[in-house]
Structures are given as C-alpha cells and as structure tokens.
Design goal:
44% helix, binds zinc ion, 14 strands, alpha+beta, globular, 5-stranded mixed β-sheet
Length: 449
C-alpha cells in the first residue's frame, strides 16, 4: 500500500465557513491548553503527562460541538511535536534542529484541521466524497460542501483522512489522504541516466545541458510584495508611535498592553496583512507549479536521476544567497523527484557531498582548485576543454554513478553478459529507495584517478 494526498479547492457557504472557523479555533485552543498544562504538570510534579481532549470537555461543553476526531488529531500532533523535539535534542533526527512546541496564534499559524474516516457497521462512512456531483460531506456539518474535482480520485483508493485548510487570502482547500495499491514498478534502463546539478539561476542544469523553464516568479512579484509589506509595517510603527510617551524610545508596560490590543483589533492592519499574504501565496503557488512540472518532465524522460548531496540550508546561510536559493526551490524539486522515483521504481541516486563535481574536468579529471563560485565557464588547464560550470558538474555526477554501478571495466555500452549482475544491483538500489533512504555511494580514493 502507498499513501498519497490529493488536494482540491472547496467553496463552503457562509454557514460552513463559520463551522470551519469554529473548528480551527477549537483546535488552536485545545493545543494551547494541552501544551501549557503539560508544561505546568512537568514543572510541578516532574511527570510527563499528555492531556487528552476528554480532560477538557466537562468544563468546556462547547467542545462537544466540534468533530471529536479533529480534537484527537491535535493530541497526536502535540505528542509528535514533542517526540520530534526530543529526538532532535538527542541528535537522533537528521536535518534542522526542532524547537520546543510553541503556542499557536490565530494570525501567525495555519488555519487547518484534520479528521479521519470512520466506517460504521453497515458500511456507511462519516465522510462522503461524491466526485460525480462535486460535493464532500464532513462530520458535524449537515450540508454538502461544493468541491471542484479537477482530477479524479485514483482507482482503488481508500480514503483515510481529510484536512481542511484556509489560506491567508480566504481560499479553502480539502486535502484527501488515501491509500492506493502499489503501482507496478519498472526495471530502470541504466542508459537513461542524467546528472542534475543545482543552479542558482535556472533551478537545475542537467548533464545534457537542459535547464528549467524558470520564470523568476519571486523577482517579478517581489516589488509588489515589498510594497505591501512596507505598508503593513508602516501601519504597525504608526500605531506604536501613538502609544509612545513624548521623548521616550521604549513603550511602558501599560502602553505595551494597549499597543498590542490595538494591533489585535485594528481592521485596517488586518486588511494590509491579508493583501501582503495574498501576494506571497501567489508566488508560492507559481513556484510550486513550475517545480512539480519540471520534476514530472524529467522523471518521464530518464530512469536514473543523480543528485549531489548538498545541504541547501547551510548553503544559503553561508553564501548569503538566501533569496535566490529559496527562490529556486531546489529542495522541493529534489524531494518530488525522489518521491516519484520511489513510486515508479526508477533510481534516485545521491553522490557523496565530498565528490568534487564542479571542480573536476569531466574529460581528463583534472581538479581545478582555483575555481571560484563566480566562474560560470572555465577552460581546463590540463586538456583545454571549455567547460560550463553547471553542465560539467552534471556530467561528473552521471559518470560517478556509472562508474560505481558497472562491473569491473565492462562499461555501460558493453553490457552483454553482465546484464544480470547489473539488474540485481539495480534492484538492490531501488529496494533501498523503497525504505525511504537515500542511496549513498562514497567517493573513494583520490579524485584524480
Ligand atoms: Zn581537462
């Protein structure tokens, strides 16, 4: 079985919107209370106790009007937030450090809740999805919600859960989580291999010299976003000035309270926040759309996709490229390709990060130690080849894969008898992929073989 999620736009009526608002609020309320109670109990008794939704229902009977599964999911989310935090503390978790779970605010946090499918004895379900008529029925709501099914649900899928989300610009979406049978996996054709290198300006460049159809969405909308953010921030400083005593730089305690209250209640400020948020939302949708399409295009064309093991977070921090790296969204792109590979049986291959993919000439393997980041093109001092920085790196990545996966010196074009050895080693590679681990091949020995 495989888990997938499809997201559809929904158009709730006023009543349904009110119900969603209420549920978002209740989930947030519960999260904040559970978090603070857990912390209080720990401080007082030194005991780790995770409160349950039922602990609150007697004193707060209004919680009974809320979908109980949505509240259960809040409890589960809080527990996993803690477990991730502890794992991160101990170093058992890869990637970015996870901070202690935080309180949720209405304005800063995602408006979202998740509920699960429960089937009754007679086979009826608490959630009904009607693709033909374009409606969805959810627990605690009497009416059907209009839904645009821009794509059908996959064949033989079993719906497991749904999440409702409201964006900053007041659009509503339903994300339907499903289980589907494993797809038939292909046996990858190793000759259809491609090295894919990160590129600052084009998202990626392949060993065949292909680049992304990159529109620089962020740069284009950046001006507008900047303007709207500036207006929002200016409004905040104006409100702050109003509460400032003459000849003082800091707000007094009393005035801070008043200032915060006005921030919370100002309708104009809220309008400005939504206007800025709408632009960010649009940029991020455009970005995601292009990245996913590019990933899909490459996966259709190739069977082996080879990447370098780079950490984009450290990279953007070290090199001060924050905006460009974020703009390019290489991470989203790579993750999507990995996902598609796991589903289809194609090979997602990661080359060790110490492999000198950019600095090595792909013709004679000379290592150019003096290569700077700004050098987009260079001439190999050993053999005189003119090299495009990114394409060269892509070719090196591809070669690294081919060398590590060919038997002896048989080479890729002289498969002949080795084919069987080949496919078994490939199957091994795809099995590793299935487990969700990245296939790592160490770059052993000196680079200039
Ligand atoms: Zn060379």
């Amino acid at each position: 079985m495989q888990n997938i999620v499809h997201k559809y736009r929904i158009y709730p009526n006023i009543e349904q919107q009110q119900y969603f608002e209420q549920t978002f609020g209740a989930c947030r309320w519960l999260w904040n209370h559970m978090l603070s109670d857990r912390n209080d109990i720990y401080k007082r008794d030194g005991e780790t106790y995770y409160p349950k939704p039922s602990d609150y229902k007697i004193e707060n009977p209004w919680l009974k009007d809320i979908d109980s599964l949505a509240l259960c999911n809040v409890q589960l989310n809080l527990q996993s937030a803690y477990s991730n935090f502890f794992k991160s503390l101990k170093g058992d978790r890869k990637g970015k450090k996870i901070s202690h779970p935080k309180f949720k605010s209405k304005k800063r946090c995602k408006q979202r809740y998740k509920t699960n499918v429960v089937c009754g004895k007679n086979g009826s379900s608490n959630i009904k999805i009607d693709v033909d008529n374009g409606t969805v029925r959810l627990p605690k709501i009497d009416s059907k919600i209009k839904t645009i099914f821009h794509r059908p649900l996959p064949k033989n899928s079993i719906v497991k859960n749904v999440s409702i989300e409201k964006t900053v610009s007041s659009k509503y979406y339903i994300a339907i989580g499903m289980e589907i049978p494993e797809r038939d996996k292909i046996i990858p054709d190793i000759t259809k291999a491609v090295g894919i290198d990160f590129s600052m300006n084009n998202i990626y460049v392949t060993s065949d010299g292909e680049k992304a159809n990159h529109q620089h969405w962020f740069r284009r909308s950046e001006k507008l976003l900047k303007l709207r953010k500036r207006r929002y921030n200016r409004r905040i400083s104006k409100i702050r000035e109003k509460h400032l005593l003459p000849n003082q730089k800091k707000l007094t305690k009393d005035n801070t309270k008043k200032f915060r209250e006005e921030l919370r209640n100002s309708k104009n400020l809220e309008k400005l926040r939504i206007r800025a948020g709408t632009i960010s939302e649009r940029v991020s949708n455009q970005r995601k759309d292009t990245l996913l399409k590019e990933a899909f295009r490459l996966i259709n064309k190739y069977d082996v996709l080879i990447f370098e093991d780079i950490n984009l977070q450290t990279m953007s921090r070290c090199l001060n490229f924050g905006k460009s790296v974020a703009d390019a969204g290489f991470g989203i792109f790579r993750n999507r390709i990995e996902q598609l590979c796991n589903q289809s049986g194609k090979i997602f291959f990661v080359v060790d990060k110490w492999f000198p993919s950019s600095k090595m000439c792909n013709k004679c393997r000379h290592i150019n130690k003096d290569l700077k980041l700004s050098d987009r093109e260079w001439i190999c001092p050993e053999c005189g080849t003119i090299l495009d920085r990114d394409v060269n790196a892509g070719i090196n990545l591809k070669n690294n894969f081919l060398e590590n996966n060919t038997v002896g010196t048989a080479g890729i074009n002289a498969l002949g008898d080795v084919t069987s050895t080949f496919s078994s080693s490939l199957l091994l590679a795809s099995n590793v992929n299935e487990l969700g681990k990245m296939t790592l091949i160490n770059y052993n020995g000196s680079p200039s073989l």
